[in-house]
Design goal:
The complex is a heterodimer of chains A (304) and B (130).
Chain A lengths: L5 H21 L9 H34 L10 H24 L1 H7 L10 H4 L6 H4 L6 H6 L3 H17 L10 H6 L3 H8 L16 H6 L24 H18 L4 H6 L13 H22 L1
Helix pairs in contact in A: 1-8, 3-4, 3-8, 4-12
Chain B lengths: L3 H24 L10 H11 L7 E4 L5 E6 L2 E8 L2 E8 H5 L2 E3 L2 E5 L7 E5 L11
Antiparallel strand pairs in B: 1-2, 2-3, 3-4, 5-6, 6-7
Classes of the chains: A mainly alpha (304), B alpha+beta (130).
Chain lengths: 304, 130
């Protein structure tokens, strides 16, 4: 089977659908909001990410080839069962990668770009990291090559995952039929993932199959009563592309210089961690919100 | 060494980005934002800083920002694009901020939000300057 890059093949589709979403929103046919500077940042990050990916591709592919040479099994690339297996295992790997990217600051530093828009539209999907290669999260996919999946097969499946993620970044599609919402990641589920409401923080990490979130307790459905507010807990105050791309890395650097003895916490603690607890992690925000809800509930019952 | 084909692909992608941004600007489909008034500024600030009390509030004369005192902190709200960004800084830092040409420039000491500019008739307020 000949290797191919699903992302390259899908690029014209990306461009055409962004055009379509903008035009349909302009004609009031769909619910979508685009702000020009925000769109410029998203698309420039997407372009930069492609360049960064090419620069690091040699290293990642060489590493996966080396691991493949020491594989445990030899899995054929032309067997249907092998594609089903790599689909499931790659999807699970992505779930782990994505969860780590939200729960540990060093990997959040690379992933935060993707969440930094206050908008949720198809251009947000292209707002990708420039520093994923440096963060080393690509190492998480090496066990697939160690198992015996050919590196090209893994690369194709990763591309399929990336392409799948694109179309779910939209407010245009509200809800899909229940059986689809039950099994697959959908625009509704992923809107929750991009929301900064305390209820929605750090939920729905899945890429294609939402079953991983249901299995591992990180699933949260979108509630009509609580519309998603998009962006970061502390939204960016700039459209400067360099600040957008590197702000969390710079923040880590500043913290390390100020308090090097807490290096492990600054690097591997959750985003918002600080030695004296003066900052807020998403767990703290969620706990405070839950306490407020619990306090408000008896009052509303009494009022009723 | 990057191939010529790759460089052509990057150049074409750059042109596509420019065209899409132009289209987004032309479409004028950003969120409609009315100038802030007291009520909306309070709403946004309390959404950003839940549980905090607002002792006093100054809304920018152009409606694009607000500054509130909350105990020893200043809560800052400023517009970015079609959204708002909030930060808190020590109150003393806010009162010491430079006021020139009818606006205060607040150093937010944050690489992700370096400064906020808020248009006010005067600053600091006479009764709170001490």
């Amino acid at each position: 089977m000949k290797a191919f890059d699903p992302v390259t093949l899908a690029t014209p589709f990306f461009i055409l659908t962004v055009i379509l979403e903008i035009l349909l929103a302009r004609l009031n046919r769909v619910e979508a909001r685009y702000e020009a500077k925000d769109t410029a940042v998203s698309l420039t990050l997407g372009l930069g990410s492609t360049i960064a990916g090419v620069l690091i591709a040699g290293v990642t592919f060489a590493a996966s080839l080396w691991v493949y040479q020491h594989r445990l099994f030899t899995i054929p690339m032309n067997a249907v069962w092998a594609w089903v297996a790599v689909f499931l295992l790659e999807d699970l790997t992505y779930y782990v990668f994505h969860r780590l990217s939200h729960e540990r600051r060093i990997w959040w530093a690379a992933h935060v770009n993707h969440h930094s828009s206050q908008h949720y539209n198809l251009s947000t999907a292209l707002r990708q990291t420039w520093t994923g290669g440096v963060a080393g999260t690509w190492l998480l996919w090496l066990p697939l090559s160690l198992l015996g999946f050919p590196p090209a097969m893994v690369a194709i499946e990763k591309g399929v995952s990336l392409v799948y993620q694109y179309w779910i970044h939209t407010e245009t599609i509200r809800r899909l039929p229940a059986p689809i919402e039950a099994v697959f990641n959908t625009p509704s589920h992923h809107r929750v993932h991009h929301a900064r409401n305390p209820r929605y923080l750090d939920r729905n990490y899945a890429v294609i199959l939402i079953i991983w979130d249901r299995l591992f307790g990180s699933f949260q459905p979108e509630l009509d009563a609580e519309p998603c507010r998009y962006g970061l807990v502390k939204n960016l105050g700039t459209f400067n592309i360099v600040r957008v791309a590197f702000h969390e890395w710079i923040g880590i650097g500043q913290d390390l210089v100020r308090q090097p003895r807490h290096a492990l916490g600054w690097l591997f603690g959750p985003p918002g961690w600080s030695p004296d607890g003066s900052r807020e992690t998403s767990a703290v925000i969620k706990a405070r919100w839950a306490a407020e809800q619990a306090q408000a509930a008896p009052k509303s019952k009494r009022a009723a | 060494m990057l191939s010529q084909a790759f460089l052509i692909q990057v150049a074409a992608s750059g042109a596509a980005v420019a065209a899409l941004v132009g289209l987004a600007a032309w479409a004028r489909i950003a969120r409609p934002l009315n100038p802030l008034d007291d009520a909306t500024a309070r709403f946004y600030l309390l959404e950003e800083f839940p549980g905090r009390t607002i002792d006093q509030l100054w809304v920018a004369t152009d409606g694009a920002g607000a500054l509130a005192r909350s105990g020893a902190s200043a809560l800052v709200l400023c517009r970015l694009g079609d959204g708002y960004v909030a930060r808190q800084i020590p109150w003393a830092q806010a009162t010491a901020a430079a006021f020139r040409n009818g606006q205060i420039t607040l150093d937010l000491a944050d690489v992700a939000a370096p400064k906020a500019v808020i248009v006010l008739p005067h600053w600091p307020p006479a009764d709170l300057a001490a």
